[in-house]
Amino acid sequence: EAIGSGSFGKVYKGSYRGKIVAIKRYRAAVYGCKSEVEMLCREVSILSKLAHPNVVCFVGAVLDDPSSLSVMVHCFRCCTNKKGRVLDPPFRLRISYDVAQGMRYLHESAAKPVIHRDLNSHNILIHLDGRAVVADFGESRFMCQTEEENMTKQPGNLRWMAPEVFSQSGRYDRRVDVFSFALVVWEVHSAELPFSHLKPAAAAAEMAYKRGRPPLPDQPTAQFPAPILELLPLAWHPDPVARPDFSQVHH
């Protein structure tokens, strides 16, 4: 059963050893592209070393035939938000908390810590039991690799991109994930896309060059309770050094 598609191919719902899984099936043309193959292999390499309730669970990869190369992960029912859909306050807080938990693990507790580099609402999935998990590691890097690689490129989705990544003003580090996390949290609590009136590149430029940020109320509200209202200005601070790490966000 096809449940989604993208430039890489299609995603199918299936089963593996009694568990429901999602199966990414890649087109032969995609497999023939060196950059796409490298991204796929990198994602498999990273996912195979991760194990946390708030990180997508990797099952395996099949390499028998380039035209049917598949990556299997446990299946989820939906992404964090849909346009116009307002989530219940406890569920909004749970998503924010779960994502912070997953990111704290990736940055601080994984056997080989990881920078995600593409954290956005499309890559936050909801498990069948209700917990949020971080997914899509095609742009990710092990932190031990960041000293060797040119960490000045623009990976990820422009709408959720940290200013220092978009402006290419120099090397960046794991704090880019904290900035993207803040935008995801704002989106979850507002039920709106960040800078929805702008195209992605214009939204990134607004944040990088004009220091624009999505609007927040002056006082706590049901939509933006005090902990969230206090967190967001710190997490999307223009100075990466001023942003909290995920252990601070978690607490």
UniProtKB/TrEMBL annotation:
What's the protein called, per UniProt?
Answer: Kinase domain protein
Which first-to-last residue range defines the signal peptide? none
| Protein origin, superkingdom | Eukaryota
Which residues bind ATP per the record?
A: 24
* Keywords linked to the UniProt accession: ATP-binding, Kinase, Nucleotide-binding, Transferase
A Pfam cross-reference name: PK_Tyr_Ser-Thr
InterPro entries on file: Kinase-like_dom_sf, Prot_kinase_dom, Protein_kinase_ATP_BS, Ser-Thr/Tyr_kinase_cat_dom, Ser/Thr_Kinases-Pseudokinases
Give every Protein kinase domain span.
1-251
Q: A GO molecular function for this record?
A: protein serine/threonine kinase activity
Q: In its keyword annotation, does this UniProt entry include Kinase? A: yes
